[in-house]
Design goal:
This protein is mainly α and 123 residues long. The protein is built from three helices and no strands.
Amino acid sequence: MQPTWFAPAHPAQIVMGFVIWSIWFIAMYGGLSVVCQLAPPDVEQGPLTWLNGGLLTFALLVIALLLFLAWRSGRYCASRHKASEEAVGFERFVGYVSTVLYLIAAVATLAGTLPVLVLPPCN
């Protein structure tokens, strides 16, 4: 039986972390540009604006999703390793690689979010 694309052993998991990250990146900075053009918040407020609050909330949700997917892949690898030493190598490889790539995408999302904490938007 072939696993579905959402299964932890499916090769699509290797690229899903960075697909999620790229969608977040485009939505965050594209949305920031549109809001700054249509309804910019007051610059004197500094970084404590409704726009930065929304961007921070969105980023935290994406980070939580990426960390959940990393945890799920890591748990899958651990269960396959305990099941048998002769477990399918490719499935474990996909699980380990996707775990690391999900974590890297979560760190990249966090790094891309840090300016929201200190810089005023639309400046």
